[in-house]
Amino acid sequence: MRLIRVIEAARVGGMMRMMAVPPVKRFSHLPSMHAPFSLLSRQITMDAKNIASRLNSSGLLRTQGLLGAKWADAYDGKTIEVSNPATGEVIANVPCMGHKETNDAISSAHDAFDSWSKITAAERSKCLRKWYDLLISHKEELGQLITLEQGKPLKEALGEVSYGAGFIEFFAEEAKRVYGDIIPSTLADRRLFVLKQPVGVVGAITPWNFPLAMITRKVGPALACGCTVVVKPSELTPLTALAAAELALRAGIPPGVVNIVMGNAPEIGEALLASPQVRKITFTGSTAVGKKLMAGAAGTVKKVSLELGGNAPCIVFDDADLDVAVKGALAAKFRNSGQTCVCANRIIVQEGIYDKFANAFAKSVQNLQVGNGFSDGVAQGPLINEAAVQKVESFIQDAITKGAKVILGGKRHTLGMTFYEPTVVSDVKSEMLLSREEAFGPVAPLLRFKTEEEAIRIANDTNAGLAAYVFTNSIQRSWRVSEALEYGLVGINEGIISTEVAPFGGVKQSGLGREGSKYGIDEYLELKYVCLGNMNSN
Ligand code: SIN
């Protein structure tokens, strides 16, 4: 049987068209006659075809990079495939760009900087507001695109569009509030000022887990204060980035202000780091890559913002409201199938409530429906790829070997592909991989503690410091514990706390800088001290 490759970027007279090609087999380790998989595959083929044709007619299905005003292929014609993680189907081919294309994108951004940084903040604000309006009016299509290339349930994908667009709206407003300072002078004939000016061209490297929101929370503040950007989205999920860039152009953001390159990640990274014209690197992704970028940025002394891996503790005290704790821990753990840097990675439960919590939590987890993100009621989509599943498997195996017990799940889902059963593991100890590193998957490890001091010690026993969650009904304890936690974000009796209006970022090896909120724009600004002397002359 021939499957249909959903979107083929064949251009005839500049138009995209659909064409049938043989399937690409990416999951050859799985039994080929797996019944649920073939059903799922047929269903998504239908969905994907409809979505593709709708996106195509609205012009949002872009499959080329954006270099200044030009939608461009890789100069050597090489492409990479973008696949639907729920089915393995190839949904598009995009250019595999490298050094040369990145250098041209940097030149376009550099050329555009002069005029973009000089127009008024009010004009930039208007363009951003228009972009926000377009993102919201295309929410359905963007949400579908996110589900198609990333796999998360459509409801979550639509939530990401609102969240992501929120950064553009927020920074459209903040653009008008980049105030400088006047400093009282120590000498009577001088006046001292501080100007805030855009850093220049920004290289923004973004991950696959939030194909839209991780871009907008970098590009929003950058553009608001007059910077121009070269964005490198993940090669796993570039289509949402390209659609957002198309909408940016439609919003009247001038060509060259937003550029998109994708493909050969090491080459693109090297070109961004080597260029003296790129004055800032902003990155969301793994700690290992973040460290390399930080070291690479030293060569040209660029500003760096890094949003890196976490190892979030979720502490449940005996005095917590059980329902609130279960609901909060479930949300914190299973958002995006566990694939966020702020997902609860260790659920640390006080001994008095441990058994009750473990039972109630496992029951809730059991109710999470796994499946294709386009199906109604699905709460857990596939993991992004086979490597992600293997990582989860190895962490669970390590925990079992060291004495932990799987109380729910613990294996690949019968749907096949990269679907994994939502899993709860009890009796997890600090030395296990599940405690030491981010699983980035749908596995919830439960650890036990006796005292508040012990909970804080366990929670802080990591090099990461991004998000932490605390469930307690004591106001005093919530203050004490929040102050003691070495983390950039703390949720008290809440499992999802990200918002464009609050600062997001980590301490220790979880990163540098903050995104979102009034603080987020500072990352894209330089301070300039101006001293006006000889004031007593005429
Ligand atoms: C991330 O996983 O890096 C971002 C999560 C969020 O914005 O809440």
From TrEMBL:
InterPro entries: Ald_DH/histidinol_DH, Ald_DH_C, Ald_DH_CS_CYS, Ald_DH_CS_GLU, Ald_DH_N, Aldehyde_DH_dom, Aldehyde_DH_Superfamily, Succ_semiAld_DH. Pathway: Amino-acid degradation; 4-aminobutanoate degradation. Its EC number is 1.2.1.24. One of its GO terms (molecular function) is succinate-semialdehyde dehydrogenase (NAD+) activity. The keyword NADP does not apply. It catalyses: succinate semialdehyde + NAD(+) + H2O = succinate + NADH + 2 H(+). Residues 71-530 form the Aldehyde dehydrogenase domain. PANTHER family: SUCCINATE-SEMIALDEHYDE DEHYDROGENASE, MITOCHONDRIAL. Belongs to the aldehyde dehydrogenase family. This is Succinate-semialdehyde dehydrogenase.
